Each structure stands twice: as C-alpha cells, then as structure tokens.
Predict the structure.
Amino acid sequence: MAFDREEFIALLKSKGLKITNQRLLVLETLAACPDRHLTAEEIYENIKADCPEIGLATVYRTIQLLLELHLIDRINLDDGFVRYEIGNEREDGSKHRHHHLICRKCGKVLSFQDDLLEELEEKIVKTTGFQVMDHEVKLYGYCKECGGRTD
Amino acid sequence: MAFDREEFIALLKSKGLKITNQRLLVLETLAACPDRHLTAEEIYENIKADCPEIGLATVYRTIQLLLELHLIDRINLDDGFVRYEIGNEREDGSKHRHHHLICRKCGKVLSFQDDLLEELEEKIVKTTGFQVMDHEVKLYGYCKECGGRTD
DNA sequence: GTCCATGCAAATGATTTGCAGTATC
DNA sequence: GATACTGCAAATCATTTGCATGGAC
C-alpha cells in the first residue's frame, strides 16, 4: 500500500493535472521513507541527487498538491520544522493515522498505531456533541536508548 | 490555580529576574482568557490597550520566559499560528495537560481533560521501552453548531 | 550605579508568489 | 499549439536579534 505509481498517475489524470517527473519524485521520496518524517528541505535535497534542476518552490507546490489529494500528512513536531509523511488510509476510507513518540533527548521519532482513542471519541460525542473525524497524538518522553531523563 | 500574581513575583525574584509591568501584563492576559488560545500578536494587541508602548519583541521574549518557567503551554493548531495558554500543573507537579477539539468548519477550539491516555502510556512503555513524560492530543471534527460535515 | 529588560528596527528563515521559459497533453 | 508546471528570484510573514535607552533593585 502507501504508494502505487499507476494509481497516482490515474488520480492526477482524473483531476486534469499533468504527470510530471517532479510530482512522481516527491511522492516516491516520501514513499521510500515511511518511517522518517521529512521536511520540505530534506525532500528537496533527496531529489536533487537524481534531478539537480528541481527547485525548492516546486517541492513546496507539490507538497501542497499531495496534501489536498490526501496522499500525504503534515506533522509538526514543534522543533521548528514541518514534516511530511506518506498517508495511510484504511480500506474503508477512514483515517487510521498513526501517532508519534518524540524523544526529548535525541529527537528520534517513533511511530505507533493504536485505536485506543475510539473509546475517547465516543465519550466526547456524548458529552460535547462534537463529531470527531480525525485525531493526532504526540507523546513526549525518552526513548529506550536515552533512558534516564535529563530535563 | 492558573495565575497567582504574588507567586509569579516570588518566582521571578527567586530566579534573579526582574519584575516588570510587561511580564505581569503578558501573564495576566493569558490568565484572563483560559479558554481562548491566543497568538503572540493577539496578546500584543490586548496589552496595547492598557500599555501602548509595549513592543511585540518584548511579548515574544516574555512568552519564551514563561515557557521556560513552565507557566504557559504552546499549542499549534496548524492554522499557521502558534498559540499559548496558561499552564495547569497538578499539585503533585505532574502534567495534566488538557486536549483540544478543533472544528474544521468554524475553527472553534474546545478543551477537554481526560486521563484516558495513561492506559496507552503504560502499553507503550511495555512494548517499546519509551518513557512517556507528556502528551498532546488534537481531535479534529465538527462542533455541535456546525454539525453536518462540509469537507 | 549596575545590569537586566525594553523598544525599535533590521535580520532571519521557512514558505509563497510573480513571471518568463518549458514540458505535457 | 495551448496551457499547466517549473525554476528562479523576489516577496512575505512570523519570530528573533543587535543595540542603545530606560527601569528595577
């Protein structure tokens, strides 16, 4: 899952958008690093290896496009950089966003999947009438390697 | 809780920091709107009513200071602005951060408190060895008033 | 009086935008 | 061949910083 080149091309076509090498490269770069969380600058640097003429503005414009197509997600780890990762919707189309464990010492980011929040979402609908469609969870702490806190 | 002027003054003194009107005003402004989530610019505009000579840079510097003192929290609702709110630690000093419900239609932000995540945190320690110290949860959806989704 | 804090203006840095050239359809 | 997309450079906008003045202790 995650990235199907033909599917992406078909999607672009169906929207009347052009298939360009740059668009393929940006999505491929994000698909190639499902565990890393790349900044726009990192995506740009990665692509420049294969395609030195690409411009940073194009990377930003493509990211915008991919966000609108719901192919990628934006993550903000509050380290001053916005990051992006390939999206993962469930077969039924509902979001199955995974969450992030952020190490306060080394900055490493681990991902985990958990649907524990469904219980919480139900509770919220009952008490506030707010309909929850999506959620984002960030957990801050210390990874196994960094262990002892140094706050 | 939330804001005690005398306590704040004592804290500044104990750190060798000076008590200035600007510092008091920034913290008072945040304490006065516990439910709103103000941007630096909004805090600045609010204070200018009482104290027109205050500079935006001072607001930013004071926010930085208050974050370091753990008196306020930073929230990022991904609307392009970073927001701040008065902190609320529990008596035992542990964090009791509340979470945010963000309406995709009107942009309203509701807060809620819930410790449901403690269960999840335990699970994470067991499976990954990651020690969770703090967490942040954002739930996106539609508030009671906006009801029907318009995605 | 000392030194920290402030205000202003200039600097920074991520992201965006205008525009002319280029590639896709 | 028309038009959407790209690359470049300039513009933008939140936030930070340098520096001289002002205020707290």
User: Anything to note?
Assistant: Helices of chain A lie at 5-14, 21-32, 40-50, 56-68, 117-128. The longest strand of chain A covers residues 131-142.
